[in-house]
Amino acid sequence: MTSVDVPVALLGYGTVGSAVNRLLVSNADEIERATGHRVRVVRALVRDPAAERDFLPDPGILTTDFRAVADDPEIRLVAEVMGGLEPAGEHVLELLRSGRSVVTANKQLVARRGGELFATASAAGVQLRFEASVCGAIPVIKVLRESLSFSRVHRVLGIVNGTTNFILTRMEHGAAYAEALAEAQRLGYAEADPTDDVSGADAAAKMAILATVAFGTRVTLDDVWYTGIEEIAPLHMRAARELDMAVRLVGAATLVDGRYDVRVQPAFVDRHHPLAGVEGPFNAVMLQGDAIREIMLEGPGAGGLETASAVVSDMISVIGTTGTGFLQNDACWRELERLPHGDVVSPFYVHLEVDDRPGVLADVARRLAAHEVSVARLVQHETGEGTAALHIVLHECRSGALGTALAEIAQLPETRQRPTALPVISDRGVPGLGWA
Ligand SMILES: NC(=O)c1ccc[n+]([C@@H]2O[C@H](COP(=O)([O-])OP(=O)(O)OC[C@H]3O[C@@H](n4cnc5c(N)ncnc54)[C@H](OP(=O)(O)O)[C@@H]3O)[C@@H](O)[C@H]2O)c1
Fold first, then answer.
1. Which of 33, 196, 268, 364 has the fewest C-beta atoms under 10 angstroms from its C-beta?
2. Close Cβ partners of 244 (under 8 Å, ≥ 6 residues apart)
3. Which CATH number is 314's domain given?
4. Element (H, E) at 123
5. Domain span including residue 184
């Protein structure tokens, strides 16, 4: 086999960038065997060339000048692993316009500006790949775009943020929220500023990308409704345990009658559901479709080497498919409408704090029934001082109807605290759980 040298560039040489170079160097023979090409990093853009690096590049590779990448006609393929919206966005656009294929790990960029980036790549006849932007080492984009391209996937459920999954798993074992977050930061699973993770924003960007690819319609970050885990308290963990469930931050993308809904929120997951078994910093994505029924992919969702593995895999795909026309285009081929927010149907868990006296339960049940919301199961805890905590599992209902019923219940004189509702996820259905 004749080997051809492929010079590539990296925008960024930090945790992921240095791991990409490490993988390209240490697996050069395997890559050459698979593609017939010897891939070499010839330029890497950084802010400070003197900074300490995990894996040192050859002398002269690091540069602070983007022109050294953009103006080098030898470089046909670039991996963007610098992060942030700018200057990464403008750099990627310029590279695509000038006929370079780009591989990116940047979920915020793809989730916010995917339309513009793909249109530019398409017009220039080059590829833009983004496996590393979702779930680290898990090859879910490739599975959706290649293996399942004809499969009519109608639901994607995912635990796509390792930081929050680690925190929730620790809370399940008795830690308080602040304690679990501090431990995540100590172990390097959470940033010093964890806002993006705990607020659900990071998971929302990943779900926007997954929904776009799964449903073939552009879903941006603004189209995803999300809440985080900041308000999850030990009482939720206790209630979940008693109901034989686990609390997880779940991203759910659903296609209903040609309209889509994408949301991220803490959910009560039935212990028998595979997502309940995803523990610590791991990620998992469950794909449901007509012919495939259900496929679950699970693995490390972050980490330098794990993410770099997805970047390198995309680079190999670009090299292996350039010129063949295979999978070079944007995943979007249609424009679907968003499902109105309240139209999503699910079973729910509801937490109420009410006066502990006769008639209160009946009053609550009446308000729910008035909006066609019915109770499947109820657990009551005495909280002292004449109040009771009600943990209620509801049969499937419209989330809008439940919202209206809970707004009315919040106004009742016997209600002591704003009611909260979380979706319940179970593949057995509420009757299957013996709650009918
Ligand atoms: N780390 C992970 O586990 C992980 C997982 C999934 C996805 N990602 C994504 O991968 C990307 C990279 O993450 P990372 O953890 O490798 O970040 P990082 O360690 O902070 O590295 C960023 C690199 O980009 C360079 N850089 C940043 N801004 C620059 C600018 N304006 N001009 C020139 N160079 C600039 C930095 O230069 P200096 O080195 O000189 O500072 C550094 O080399 C991000 O989009 C991130 O969301 C990371």
1. 33
2. 270, 271
3. 3.40.50.720
4. helix 107-124
5. 140-299
Q: What is the CATH number of the domain that holds 402?
A: 3.30.70.260
Structural tokens at position 26: 């240490």
Co-location of 113 and 150 in the same domain? no
User: What tens digit of pLDDT does each residue of 282-327 get?
Assistant: 999 999 998 888 999 999 988 899 999 999 999 999 988 875 444 4
Angle, CA of 400, 248 and 269, to the nearest 5°: 70
131 and 145 both lie in a single domain:
no
- Kindly report, residue by residue over 394-407, the tens digit of the pLDDT: 999 999 999 999 99
CATH code, domain carrying 265:
3.30.360.10
pTM as predicted: 0.88
Please provide the DSSP assignment of 328-347 as one string: -S-S----PEEPPGGG-EEE
Highest mean pLDDT among 27-36, 183-192, 196-205: 196-205
Residue in the structure block whose two tokens are 């996820």: 425
For ligand 1, the distance from its centroid to the CA atom of residue 12, given in whole angstroms, is 5
Do 162 and 269 lie in one domain? The reply is: yes
- Per-residue DSSP letter, 276: G
Give the pLDDT confidence of 32-47 residue by residue, as tens digits. 888 888 999 999 999 9
**Ligand 1 pocket residue status of 16, Cβ below 6 Å:** yes
Residue pair 348/424 in contact (Cβ under 8 Å)? The answer is: yes
Same domain for 388 and 247? no
| pLDDT tops 70 at residue 409 | yes
Mutate to test the pocket of ligand 1, among 13, 20, 47 (most ligand atoms within 8 A of CB): 47
Structure tokens at 109: 């960029």
Query: Ligand 1 mean position to 187 CA, how many Å?
Result: 19
Q: Which of 91, 141, 307 to mutate to test the pocket of ligand 1 (most atoms within 8 A of CB)?
A: 307
Does 274 lie in the same domain as 198?
A: yes
Question: How many distinct structural domains can be found in the chain?
Answer: 3
pLDDT in tens, 44-58: 999 999 999 989 999
Lay out the sheet containing 62-63: strands in order across.
62-63, 37-45, 4-11, 77-80, 101-104, 128-129
